[in-house]
Amino acid sequence: MTAERHAGGTVTAERAAPASPGNGSPASGAPSAPPRTPDPDFVRPGARVAAVTAGVEDPRPVLAALLPEAKVGHADIDELSANPPAVAEPYAVALVARTPTDLRRLVSVGEMLPAADRIMVAILETPSWLDTPQVTLARGMGQRRLREMRVVRLGATGWLITTRFNRELGAGEVAAGVARGMTGHHLNAYPLPAFGLGDAALADWRAGDPDTTCGSAPERSGVPSCDLGLRLPGAPWDDDRVPTVERPPWRRGLWTEIGAPGGYGTFDETVLAPCHVPPVDERSVNPRGFLRVPTQGMGEVVARDGRWTVRLDGADVLRFPESGLVTDADVDRLRKLRGLRLTWSPGHTGPITAARVVAGLAAAGIPLVAERPAPAWALATLGEELTSLIPEDPADLDDELRREEVSVRLRRHALRTHGTTARWTALAREMGLAVPPEPTVSVVLCTRRTGLLGFALRQIARQRGVRLEVVLALHGIAAGDPAVSAALTDVDLPITVIEIDADVPFGAALNTAVARCSGTYVTKWDDDDWYGPDHLSDLLLARLYTGADLVGAASEFFYLEQINVTIRRRWPSETMADHVAGGTFLMSRETFAALGGFRPIPRAVDVELFQKLLRAGGCLYRTHGLGFVARRSARGKHTWQEPVGYFLHRAKDQWQGFRPSRLLEHEPEHEQPVE
């Protein structure tokens, strides 16, 4: 056990006996015996506790184990609006979520959660990559009221957080603090417009956003509570200044509901289009934790007993909830599989819930195959482009590189089409609301080699899906050099050209270039390496779903020019890390300025910056490296100088000639960089 002083109180970390997830499905393991009370002093015997659960199908044994002697009033998140916990002036509040994804659903209805001076958050199952939760309460609100916090391991993979405050606090703030500490995002913020939910049953549509309002009443000041509201079909919205969109709860999209007496009318509300599918919470369900080398075979997604179920070798591995929600813990259970075979079973629960399963798996980068064409409902709800990216032949997943390429293509499209940010941006545009512009990226290219300038600029010019500018630092080269003029006229890019004396250290030259940048983000570009056309958009996507202070690609592919060999190294990707490929990193200009920029040294500037960020409390995320190939020629021509043997010794794969991933989209007739 360890303890430290925190906000005037005590923070304790320890281990408790396991609690049952309570749904009795193979996805969550068999129910275990009730544990000893993890925090016996949290509530006194007979105390009234208001409990709200999310994702826990049978909460009774779980609540009995966590609060054995309390009088508990319970509500599930889907029924919270109609039937809140019937507990007046509760002594404590307990929030119980099956997974972190489920906890984030509670965050979006934080306004509706009860308040008390003792608040418990229990998460029954977490993914293997999740570290100890860091509970980050708002300093001007809950943090200053905190008197004690205890973070306790709950079973094999769960966590229990108990808090005590000097006065009553809304449980939604604690839920938001726990959820925020489970991501790399320093703020639980989403782009405008501001959104509101008319009912807690719609929480899946805006998971993880504590700024989401619940209900349609205006603020006390008289201003609208939100800019765009989401309500149940036919439900009133009190403020007619707010445009609203109707969406049914997930149960109305089930075949059992549609086929029930009087239920056919609900089918009209369940329009078969991507914008009617509840979005994937990309800050929770994403490629993080992807395993390049699977240890298990192909699984199959089938409909069993009204649910989508993953089976492997004749046994159930995972049963998804009826709603079709895919959680981070579910994804973690599937990482070891080579892939999943979709059957497009006609016995699925309904088109919307079925589409949620497929979209969630694709967004997480689970490799999928489907041996027959997608049916009409799948084409309509998922979109033809996403379904076209699912290969038909399971052999496409036999090779590890090809398998990862399938994963990257699926995750790219699913996150950009079915993610929360993408879905609400589309809804806002549909309603004629202004949305923030896409962030801009400043590409810093510092070179001493005029012979490589044209090649490098053409690599930048083929970037797609991103707004960019180039700051070209000519390090010891005159701007009037004919080779420079020729390279600049060959591309249509917004370019700022600066001259830097040859004797200025590399790090100082880069700082001079960054000072001329105007983009939201800044990225470093090497003049002799290859970049795929989605390189920058992939980095922005990784920044979106991780919130990391710095993102970059893995240093996987190297072309060893001296011996005409391409190698691939064994670096894991889609993980928090301590370094990325130096020619690929992207970070906000604000973070770069806070760190003071690069050290004014001739080499190793990237590593020094990474270490400074980590020591300052920041985080780095390493995404896939399939869209980047580093060139290594003779020693003395690079700031990173290692002999050929260094790379060959660390190679997992090697090929004769130039052999990048298909995601680089390099054609044989394309140019090679020539100094």
TrEMBL record:
Keywords: Transferase. InterPro entries: Glyco_trans_2-like, Glycosyltransf_2, Nucleotide-diphossugar_trans. GO terms for molecular function: transferase activity. It comes from the Bacteria. Pfam families: Glycos_transf_2. Residues 16-31 have a biased composition (Low complexity). Residues 451-564 form the Glycosyltransferase 2-like domain. SUPFAM superfamilies: Nucleotide-diphospho-sugar transferases. The lineage of its organism: Bacteria, Bacillati, Actinomycetota, Actinomycetes, Streptosporangiales. Residues 1-43 are annotated as: Disordered. This is Glycosyl transferase family 2.
